[in-house]
Amino acid sequence: xxxxxxxxxxxxxxxxxxxxxxxxxxxxxxxxxxxxxxxxxxxxxxxxxxxxxxxxxxxxxxxxxxxxxxxxxxxxxxxxxxxxxxxxxxxxxxxxxxxxxxxxxxxxxxxxxxxxxxxxxxxxxxxxxxxxxxxxxxxxxxxxxxxxxxxxxxxxxxxxxxx
Length: 163
Description:
Elements: H1 2-12, E1 19-22, H2 23-34, E2 42-45, E3 51-54, H3 56-75, E4 86-92, E5 96-103, H4 113-116, H5 130-140, E6 144-149, E7 155-162
Parallel strand pairs: 2-4
Antiparallel strand pairs: 1-3, 4-5, 5-7, 6-7
Helix pairs in contact: 1-5, 2-3, 3-5
């Protein structure tokens, strides 16, 4: 598991390969292929299509990490049930593109510093590479990752990168 995570971290740190693609189609494909068993628990909201020039492979790393964490969080249960328990939104501003994953799980269980470093995790059986992989991928695109408590419970994981 650690070797696979190290290989993903290496790939996430690669020089971006810019190409035009549809962000909405990428997100739909990620949900239908990598999260097919829980796709009914995920709502998608954003402009379709949303054509942009960026590196789809790097974005895939970052989106999958946030979605994986959100799915795990809602599987822990929450006092505020909602359907769907995970929502992915995306869009564009005059300066950047963004993707946000919102979950209705129990929320952040530790300060952000406790989960951002390589090998740091609050979850049993995890390598602690997920957020560093996402961070490396988005930083390669000139962007940033934020993780914060959602205003109505749960967590908001947001990716923003340059247009």
